[in-house]
Amino acid sequence: MSRAHAEGEPPLGEVIAYPRNGPTALRIALGAQLRRLREARGLSTEEAGYAIRGSHSKISRMENGRVGFKERDVADLLTLYGVRDADERTALLGLVHQANTPGWWHQYGDVLPDWFQVYIGLEQAASLIRTYEVQFVPGLLQTEDYARAVVRLGHPDATAEEIERRIRLRMTRQGRLHGTDPLRLWAVVDEAALRRPLGGPEVMRAQLRHLVEMTRLDHVTLQIVQFAAGGHAAAGGPFSILRFGEPTLSDVIYLEQLTSSLYLDKPADVDRYRQVMDRLSVDACHAGQTRGLLEEMLRRM
Asked: pLDDT tens digits, residue range 193-203?
């Protein structure tokens, strides 16, 4: 039995069972277990990095599930951490292969830039996403026809086949909102996004009706920042905060740009964006009012 197990750490089976399917989730699980083992031995990230011929920042990235794993590195860390049990080593090293297996979204690599593949992996592993949108309905809440209008706007030269592949990808991502362990989504949307008739009036009516139905889900919260609220805290534009079920993992801030994205996880950055999101939630209409506002918009269309 390893020292971590002897000192009351969760058994390996519980760690493996935590995340949802997908390589990002498995990397998070494996990284969290490696962190627990290191801390149980009283070792610093610098000491662990030296053992695998790397830096303390490499250990931090591994423990946060932000990078892939090399079997040799994990084997050396397990030895350093005193994990001698053959079955435990085999189970953890087996996770390395699974965590390095491409996720389902890699089949869309022809229409999916590398920087957004990272986001989808995090989205699949997240337990809660808080998002603010100013121009569009959030992707996880879009109807197929509305999504098609958004994709055509962003990719005017794309072929019909490419557009449909992008739509299929977006619809598949929405599976995270359904099933036995759905993602919790808290979306704050600027009123302008709901007033802009992308795809035409009928498409927009269907989109608003869809939002009404989504507000009936217990794990989906939708708020609208009305024009009457005036200026607000998120002057910098849309962003998302992703939270994970593993309590030792920090939130990740996602900022999408035209041809790239930023991922922030430093405590100061995360705290700042949390404060902005909290302020937006106060400035926006109460979640209980959202359905009525959407139905009013439908009546006026």
From this structure: 999 989 999 99
Are 63 and 15 in contact, with CB atoms under 8 Å apart?
no
Q: What CATH superfamily is the domain 3-99?
A: lambda repressor-like DNA-binding domains (1.10.260.40)
Domain range annotation of the chain = 3-99, 107-300
Residue 45 has pLDDT above 80, yes or no: yes
Helix-strand-coil percent breakdown of the chain, rounded to 5? 55, 10, 35
Report whether CATH 3.30.870 matches the domain 107-300: yes
From residue 6, alpha-carbon distances to 41, 84, 86, 107 in Å are 12, 13, 16, 42
The whole-angstrom separation of Cα 134 and Cα 67 is 31
98: Cα separation from own chain's centroid: 19
- Sorted by sequence, the CB contacts under 8 Å of residue 250 that are 6+ apart come out as 64, 265, 267, 270
Determine how many CB atoms are found less than 10 A away from the CB of residue 156.
Answer: 7
**pLDDT reported for residue 216:** 96
Residue 268 parent element (H or E)? helix 267-283
Q: In the predicted model, is pLDDT for residue 8 greater than 80?
A: no
Q: What angle do CA 57, 58, 60 make, to 5 degrees?
A: 60
Mean pLDDT of 215-224: 96
Task: Mention every residue, 6+ apart, whose C-beta is less than 8 A from residue 231.
Answer: none
> What is the model's pLDDT at position 111?
92
